[in-house]
Every structure is written in structure tokens, then in C-alpha cells.
Design a protein that fits this description.
The chain has 447 residues and is α/β, with parallel strands linked by helices. Helices cover 23% and strands 26% of the residues. Strands 16-13-17-22-20-18-21 form a seven-stranded mixed sheet, with helices on both faces. Strands 7-4-6-5-9-8 form a six-stranded mixed sheet. A five-stranded mixed barrel has the order 23-25-24-26-27. The relative contact order is 0.14. The structure holds adenosine monophosphate and magnesium ion (MG). Adenosine monophosphate binds next to helix 4.
């Protein structure tokens, strides 16, 4: 293993720097989408409250609106009126009285608390706070504007829209929202052995499972997948496939980045004028991962270089190149993902996802690790110096004060899709750990 490869943290910080540079300098295209189809999109302009929220003091209980000081005396209070949800604010509440009220209804002026139905003794047309109960000012009322004031920024650009954001936008009258247009992510699978999903593989051939997997991953991070025809393992096919891929906002290449005789992706990228940020990371699976950028209009640059007789590459591994950062927003980032499906998925989530998220305008941090407790010790297959990401199954433990329990899934290497499909996360084994004991608190990356 080449010792000058970056380790996981170093490679992750190179990617994070590039993601930041992209986010700072990008001029994202925006579009309006119907609120009902906004899920997954990244919000492009702030959402503002069209009114105070709630727009009136709202009762959170069925019960009686009254004055806390009067109710606390446990005296009988005549019921002066009644309001249910949907009725306009009523009142004012006369002195020493109560007002019947339902959940969601406006509290009448003059009342400063709502006593729950279950906490009063009612007789004829009066109520009395039960002797065992107390009530305080403000109980069971959400004051007008407590959540937000008219004109407040209630959602910031850069947020990925989900059900909660859709509900908030709806409550403020947004039937459509401005979102960033999805970045186009070229997916180029390479390999002479690959056949399409609907073909029956001949001897020695396999179906292309990375293309649909990567397309699904890209969509998850709000990219628009552009799945290109699979390229054969030869320079001419790769050159023309990459020229097409270079029309996208980012390129994901699967396969062809190991050290084998038919691993021709790096030289093909170099012919496009690529700048390499790293060509390998001390991780397993996924060690041959390549990250870099090609200049915009790379095709013509390649022609220029041919004319000038140069096809140089500047390999930069393990440190952050300031010139590359400065041009990050104009260049087209690419990842050469190792072709083994689990390596492709892991390296996508660890490294490509943060760049894709930045291109999509997302200000959320990726990857997102969470803590869990290891249910069974891991294998003792020591891989010194490599951070390992093992397919694992996390069962989210519902009992109080317990961390989710995680166990590795038995697998036959990074091509074992059966094992991968039974997992829901990667367990992280730090580079200095040969194995982890049962009961350890560990980091996992959900997929
Ligand atoms: P490579 O990175 O090209 O050396 O490929 C490593 C392993 O991944 C080989 O066993 C390939 O057959 C397999 N592989 C490469 N590309 C794909 C793909 N698109 N779908 C499924 N398996 C693949
Ligand atoms: Mg290959």
C-alpha cells in the first residue's frame, strides 16, 4: 500500500473543502415547483411567515378558558360562552367567569389560561377547578406569534425539503416554492463484462447493477442522474464516453480505477486535462477511489493539448490544492468509483455525496454518522492502516436510554450484493483498530 495515500479523515477533509468552495461560488439555477412535489428538492429562497403563527392565541386543549388567579381560588365560575375550532375570536371574558373552549380555538380576550376538561368539576352552567389541580398563567395556550411573527424567515435556503417543511410552507400559504434546479450527474459504468439488466449474461459476464444503484443514490441527494451507455475497457471508448459525460455538472465513473491491465479510467481522465485531488484512500472497501476535476469545456482543452503536444496531469494526493479550490466552482468534479458494488456505494456516500449535495445547493453536512452499540464483536481480519466500512444491520432499539444495536452482516467481499441488500448501514472500524468488541460504542453510516 502506498504510504502517501490520504487516510479517511484527510480525504474527507479534501472533499469537504471542495464542497465548501462549490457552495460558496455556485450560481445555482432556480425553478418553481408545486409544494406537493417539492419533497427532496433544495429550497432556493427563504420562506417567510405570511402572518403571526399562530395567528391568534390558540387553545391546545378541550376545556375552559379563564383567569388563572380566579380559577386557582377553586371557586365556581359561570360559563359565559363557548368557542370551537374554526370560530372567530370571541369574548371578552367577563370578570369571574369561564369560557368553554375546544382544541385549536381562539382563546377569548381576557382569559390567560385554559383548564383541561378533565381537571374541572362541572355543575349546571358553572365549573370549578378540582381541589387536587393547579393552574398557572399561560397554561394550555400558545400565544399569538409564539412560533413566528409575520415576515419572519421561517426556512433558510439550502435546506432539503421534507414533510415537515412542506407542512410549514402550506401553513403559510405557499402552494409552490422556489428550489434549486437539480445538478445533472453523469453515471458512466465501465467494464467489458457488463450487460444490461434485461439481458441474460453470457459466460463470464454480469449484469450492470451499479448504474441503477448509483442513479438511486444520486436521486436521494437531489441530483438528476444521466445514465450513459456502458463503456468498454478501451481508451477510444472511454475517451468518447467521457467527452459525453463532461457535459454534466459532475461525473461518476464506475470501475476501471484499480491497478489492473484494463483499468484505463485515470489515463482517460488525464487526457481530458484532469486535475487529481487524490488517487486512492486508505479505506476498505474503496481504496482505489479517485477524486478530481476537469476544466469546463474539457473536450476542446484536450484538442488544444494535442495540438501543443502535452497531456500532463498534476497528481495531488493528501493535501488541499488552493488553485484547484479556486476553480472548483467552474470545473466539473469527478469520482472514479471502484467497480465492486459495495465499494461504489460506500465511496459514493462517503465522498461523492458531499460534493453532489453542494452542487445541489444543500447546506446540510454529509456524510452523517450516528452512534450505535455493537451487538457482536467484529471479525479479526486485521487491515492495519485502513479505515473499514463493513455492511451492517442496525436495529433501532425502542427501549429508553439504549443506543441502537448494530451487527455486521456476513459477507463475501465487496461484490456481495446479497449481504449488502440485507444491511442498512456501514459500521466504521477506525484505522488503528484490528477489530471492535461487543458492547463498544461505534460509528455507523446509514445507507
Ligand atoms: P473494476 O473496479 O472495474 O476493477 O471492477 C471490480 C469488480 O466490480 C469486478 O468484479 C467487476 O466485474 C465489478 N463491477 C464493475 N462494474 C460493475 C457494475 N457496473 N455493476 C456490477 N459490478 C461491477
Ligand atoms: Mg473493470
Amino acid at each position: 500500500m502506498s504510504s502517501d495515500l490520504p487516510n479517511y479523515e484527510q480525504a474527507a477533509s479534501i472533499v469537504a473543502e471542495h464542497a465548501r468552495a462549490i457552495l460558496e461560488k455556485r450560481v445555482g439555477q432556480v425553478e418553481m415547483v408545486e409544494l406537493t412535489s417539492a419533497s427532496g428538492h433544495i429550497l432556493a429562497s427563504p420562506l417567510r411567515a405570511d402572518d403571526d403563527q399562530p395567528p391568534f392565541p390558540r387553545s391546545t386543549r378541550d376545556g375552559y378558558a379563564c383567569r388563572a388567579a380566579e380559577a386557582s381560588a377553586h371557586i365556581q365560575l359561570p360559563i359565559a360562552g363557548s368557542t370551537h375550532a374554526g370560530q372567530p375570536p370571541a369574548g371578552p371574558l367577563p370578570p369571574t367567569s369561564a369560557w368553554e373552549i375546544m382544541t385549536g380555538a381562539p382563546v377569548p380576550a381576557g382569559a390567560d389560561c385554559v383548564v383541561m376538561l378533565e381537571h374541572v368539576e362541572r355543575s349546571d352552567n358553572t365549573i370549578q377547578l378540582a381541589p387536587s389541580r393547579t393552574i398557572a398563567l399561560g397554561d394550555n395556550i400558545v400565544a399569538q406569534g409564539a412560533q413566528s411573527r409575520r415576515g419572519d424567515e421561517i426556512l433558510r435556503p439550502g435546506l432539503q425539503i421534507g414533510p415537515a417543511q412542506i407542512a410549514l410552507a402550506a401553513s403559510c400559504g405557499y402552494s409552490s416554492v422556489e428550489v434549486f434546479s437539480r445538478p445533472r450527474i453523469a453515471i458512466l459504468t465501465t467494464g467489458d463484462e457488463l450487460v444490461p439488466i434485461d439481458a441474460t449474461p453470457g459466460p463470464g459476464r454480469i449484469r450492470n447493477s451499479n448504474a441503477p444503484m448509483l442513479a438511486a443514490l444520486v436521486a436521494k441527494f437531489d441530483g438528476e442522474p444521466l445514465v450513459l451507455p456502458t463503456s468498454a475497457d478501451n481508451s477510444e471508448a472511454l475517451d468518447s464516453a467521457l467527452a459525453r459525460a463532461a457535459e454534466a455538472d459532475m461525473i461518476l465513473i464506475s470501475g476501471g480505477v484499480s491497478a489492473g491491465k484494463y483499468d484505463l479510467v485515470e489515463p482517460a481522465l488525464a487526457r481530458l486535462g484532469a486535475q487529481f485531488h487524490f488517487t486512492g484512500v486508505k479505506i476498505q472497501p474503496g481504496k482505489p477511489l479517485v477524486f478530481g476535476q476537469i476544466p469546463p469545456g474539457a473536450e476542446s482543452l484536450e484538442e488544444d493539448k494535442k495540438r501543443q503536444g502535452t497531456t500532463s496531469v498534476v497528481p495531488i494526493s493528501g493535501h488541499i490544492d488552493q488553485r484547484a479550490l479556486a476553480s472548483a466552482s467552474e470545473s466539473i468534479p469527478f469520482f472514479g468509483l471502484p467497480g465492486n458494488p459495495i465499494s461504489s456505494a460506500a465511496t459514493f456516500l462517503l465522498f461523492a455525496a458531499p460534493i453532489l449535495a453542494a452542487l445541489a445547493g444543500s447546506r446540510e453536512a454529509y456524510p452523517r454518522f450516528v452512534l450505535a452499540q455493537l451487538a457482536r464483536e467484529t471479525d479479526r481480519k486485521s487491515k492495519p492502516g485502513l479505515t473499514r466500512f463493513l455492511p451492517a444491520l442496525c436495529t433501532f432499539n425502542p427501549s429508553v436510554n439504549a443506543l441502537p444495536q448494530v451487527t455486521t452482516v456476513p459477507w463475501h467481499g465487496s461484490g456481495d450484493l446479497t449481504a449488502f441488500a440485507q444491511s442498512n448501514c456501514f459500521l466504521v472500524i477506525p484505522e488503528d483498530a484490528a477489530h471492535l468488541d461487543a458492547g463498544s460504542i461505534v460509528r455507523i453510516l446509514l445507507h
